[in-house]
Design a protein that fits this description.
about 240 residues, alpha+beta, 4-stranded antiparallel sheet, 9 helices, 4 strands, DUF6904
């Protein structure tokens, strides 16, 4: 079963599951975002989701975290059914920064909407249900980290989030790096605010996007191809 938990230093979330859980999520991502030419106005959002997909795929291959998890098989059950079997399953996991996974939950709303418009029977599309669970897990994990009143505001903002065509994805890099640099206590206090900023595309985002557009316009470069002049740390204290 796919699970999501807050990391010890509140830096991000740990996405965990067995091989099939993670592979199912990856397949759902690819299914709804389409190929690189399908939703060109969402090319930046597609790139960010593929970044999470990359981490999940490598986790499923055993390149990230590997842990054993109790599977519910007690000694009494073994005796009852007369067989020998391990009482733990192997789970794989990877960490994703909070701003990154919050943005993914929002961006996937757009891809799901676009996919539903193209599909003949979207209500029966298993991939859409996998995506919905992923989004719900993100918000459920966030629920345990912010005050209830703030969480209700975030839910409303996520529900009413405007479409994110040509989103300035560099803003997520900006928030990621800013969040990494915060002390743990400040992360705890800032997480709800960051979630609201991502969902509402507030004045800070608008000002940031205008700067990116100013950099992109002279050479007619697509907005998602402008690079933020900063680097992520080599090691992150999750």
């Amino acid at each position: 079963m796919l699970t999501m938990t807050n990391t010890p230093n509140h830096t991000g979330v740990k996405i965990s599951g067995d091989y099939f859980d993670l592979d199912e999520l990856n397949q759902a991502f690819y299914h709804v975002i389409g190929d690189e030419n399908k939703y060109y106005d969402y090319a930046g959002a597609r790139t960010r989701i593929l970044g999470i997909s990359y981490e999940i795929r490598h986790a499923a291959q055993g390149d990230r975290n590997v842990e054993s998890v109790f599977n519910g098989l007690h000694d009494h059950m073994k005796k009852q059914h007369s067989f020998i079997a391990p009482d733990k399953n192997i789970y794989f996991s990877t960490e994703v920064l909070w701003p990154e996974v919050l943005y993914a939950a929002i961006a996937l709303k757009d891809f799901v909407r676009l996919h539903r418009e193209d599909a003949k029977f979207p209500d029966w599309d298993v991939h859409l249900h996998v995506i919905a669970r992923f989004q719900s897990l993100v918000l459920d994990c966030l629920h345990g980290q912010v005050p209830e009143e703030e969480y209700q505001q975030i839910l409303k903002a996520f529900q009413q989030a405007v479409p994110g065509e040509e989103y300035a994805i560099q803003y997520i890099d900006f928030l990621n790096i800013k969040y990494i640099d915060m002390p743990k206590k400040q992360r705890e206090k800032s997480l709800g605010v960051i979630a609201l900023k991502i969902a509402m595309q507030d004045k800070d985002y608008v000002a940031f996007r205008n700067q990116v557009l100013a950099a992109a316009t002279p050479n007619k470069v697509p907005i998602h191809e402008i690079r933020l002049q900063t680097e992520y740390p080599e090691e992150i204290e999750w």
